[in-house]
Write a structure and sequence with these properties.
The chain is an alpha+beta fold. The protein has seven helices and 23 strands.
Length: about 375
């Protein structure tokens, strides 16, 4: 039967509040049990032992822990490796057990617990476990969003040399001489508007986006500075793991930033909200969160959908403080001009990236 469009009359329809998924906590014990289950299961043909952690309200296509974001546990036993794969999704990874190596495009990253790395789109990936313990990783990607749009592309290679061959072929494809768009100028037509020829559409300017590594042994000493910020600070005690390829979007990938927070004991953040969703992996200490009035407690090793988009939320550290890795689709929202933010519930709603944002009192504390 021929497909035909529907005509849906929305005349006079008032704006509706966005649907909000409830926050959930996946405990350390649940994660550890799943790591053991994967490690003891028969090895798949491609070597990828993986479980997707799915929110109970998620619907296929695009199953994720938050709308548009998935969280996967990936496991390798000692001596194992996962064969090459590449996809048009991008990802952030962190090691939660063991050690190992990632070969991502032309980069080789040796990692251990709490290290973080990015996986750029269409970069082939090989993970290896050359240690004596199970290797477990948490991988976060924008695959669910692309699956919702029916455009997620992924391919599985047949041997581990494919990574180097693909990367070499991509480099060899760069033209030596002028590009076609050099002969097709952009035409100004007044008032700030332009006409752009097709040659620019299919050959946009590129920004190099490489696989980067944020080793815990380098990051952890730097966190002492944010942990030591004095009482009364109006911001959050964290560093963004910044990838300069994301430019003003302030990301680790073009879809997400990963941040690592370090809080002293008994600090309560102010309630705030933003259209970007956030997933927290708490890997040190303990605390509690209030999300849309729901109170949740967590401890080291727990994973949490901590800020469903536009939910009012705040976090409070326990007596020993906490460390957390946060994955948030902030860069994607900036690129879409959709990042609305309310720093406190008394502040105006701002569109970050198109308006000057909120200001903390860091200068008063640093200069006092």
């Amino acid at each position: 039967m021929e497909a035909r469009a529907q005509f849906v009359d929305v005349s006079g329809k008032a704006p509706e509040a966005p649907e909000v998924w409830p926050s959930i906590v996946i405990t350390r014990e649940e994660i550890e049990a799943e790591v053991e289950r994967l490690a003891n299961a028969p090895k798949p043909a491609n070597g990828v032992r993986s479980t997707n952690l799915v929110h109970p309200l998620a619907k296929a296509p695009g199953l994720g822990l938050a709308p548009g974001i998935d969280a996967r546990i990936e496991v390798l036993n000692p001596g194992e490796h996962a064969l090459v794969r590449r996809a048009n999704s991008n990802a952030v990874g962190t090691c939660i057990r063991g050690t190992g190596r990632a070969r991502i495009g032309g980069a080789t990253i040796d990692f251990t617990a709490h290290d973080v790395w990015n996986v750029p789109s269409m970069h082939p990936v090989i993970y290896e476990n050359d240690g004596d313990d199970i290797q477990a990783r948490l991988i976060f990607s924008n695959q669910p969003m692309l699956e919702k749009q029916l455009v997620h592309y992924a391919e599985q290679a047949t041997d581990e040399d494919s990574s180097e061959r693909w990367f070499a072929a991509a480099e060899a494809a760069i033209p030596d001489g002028p590009r076609a768009k050099d002969s097709a100028p952009v035409v100004p037509i007044g008032g700030g508007a332009f006409l752009m020829p097709y040659e620019h559409l299919v050959d946009p300017d590129t920004v190099t986006n490489a696989a980067l590594h944020w080793p815990w042994e380098v990051v952890e000493p730097r966190l002492k500075a944010v942990r030591a910020i004095g009482d009364g600070y109006t911001g959050r005690r964290l560093y963004i793991l910044y990838n300069p390829a994301t430019e003003r979007r302030n990301g680790t990938t073009h879809s997400f930033f990963a941040s690592i927070a370090s809080y002293p004991g008994n600090v309560v953040d102010r309630p705030h909200r933003h259209s970007s969703a956030a997933i927290n992996y708490w890997f040190g200490g303990s605390g509690r969160s209030t999300v849309d009035g729901q109170k949740l407690t967590w401890k080291a090793g727990d994973l949490m959908l901590s800020a469903p988009g536009w939910s009012v939320h705040n976090h409070a550290s326990g007596p020993d403080g906490f460390y957390s890795l946060t994955i948030q689709d902030h860069p994607l929202m900036i690129a879409q001009e959709s990042l609305i933010w309310q720093e406190t519930m008394k502040d105006p709603i701002k569109n970050l990236g198109t308006q000057i944002g909120f200001q903390t009192n860091i200068a008063d504390l640093v200069n006092s």
